[in-house]
Amino acid sequence: MRYTIVSDIGRKRALNEDCAAFISRADSYQLAIVADGMGGHNAGDVASKMAVKQLEEYFIEADSASFETTLKTEDWLKKTVKSINSSLYKYSLTHEGCQGMGTTLIAVVFKDTNAVISHVGDSRVYLISSEEVRLITKDHSYVNILVDNGEISEEEAKSHPKKNYILKSLGTESTIEPDSYQVEMIDDTYMLICSDGLSNKLTNEEMQTIVTNTSTLEEKGDELVQLANDLGGEDNITLILLSQSHEEV
């Protein structure tokens, strides 16, 4: 798996509360993580970094048997995310300035072409090819409920005054139930994992144009972030762009 990580503070924020990581194990299992922190002062920064660090440690220490099948991988991710949620929640209660802190979380475990995803919040996973842009995850947001209920259109959701209102995040409640997804990564298809600082600014067409151009993977990541900044950059912008193809340098 080839990948690039870009995390940018954006044009308006004083602090980057996003965090991302990619970890490879000796047994070929790999983990990609994107977290978008929220909370007063530096609490969002604390939450996202804690979530990524703890998940990375759990992944490195896990027995290979935990990932032998898609079902086992999904179960491991769910248990691990729930444990990290409990850890963040307890931390928020006992540390001044961290009350109410939380973070979104996308965690993807890869083995060959198989990818198992755990998701909390409104960070997203897309599969992008020259034929289509497919949003894999479903935002845990107020406007997404309105869209699902047919009360507003997807276009109206983009400018809704409560578009940033998250219904589920890691660390803000004592218990949580993450969503799970499983996809196949095939050649000529890219996976884009990103915080809403990117997905709120770029259209599917803009993402597709950049991701499927002839630039290197690293250049594509930089171009995505640059366009989000050019379009306002009101939020932190973080992404992991992944590809199975070995043709790019």
Automatic annotation (TrEMBL):
<keyword id="KW-0479">Metal-binding</keyword>
<protein>
    <recommendedName>
        <fullName>protein-serine/threonine phosphatase</fullName>
        <ecNumber>3.1.3.16</ecNumber>
    </recommendedName>
</protein>
<keyword id="KW-0464">Manganese</keyword>
<keyword id="KW-0904">Protein phosphatase</keyword>
<dbReference type="GO" id="GO:0004722">
    <property type="term" value="F:protein serine/threonine phosphatase activity"/>
</dbReference>
<dbReference type="GO" id="GO:0046872">
    <property type="term" value="F:metal ion binding"/>
</dbReference>
<dbReference type="InterPro" id="IPR015655">
    <property type="entry name" value="PP2C"/>
</dbReference>
<dbReference type="InterPro" id="IPR036457">
    <property type="entry name" value="PPM-type-like_dom_sf"/>
</dbReference>
<dbReference type="InterPro" id="IPR001932">
    <property type="entry name" value="PPM-type_phosphatase-like_dom"/>
</dbReference>
<keyword id="KW-0378">Hydrolase</keyword>
<dbReference type="Pfam" id="PF13672">
    <property type="entry name" value="PP2C_2"/>
</dbReference>
<feature type="domain" description="PPM-type phosphatase">
    <location>
        <begin position="2"/>
        <end position="244"/>
    </location>
</feature>
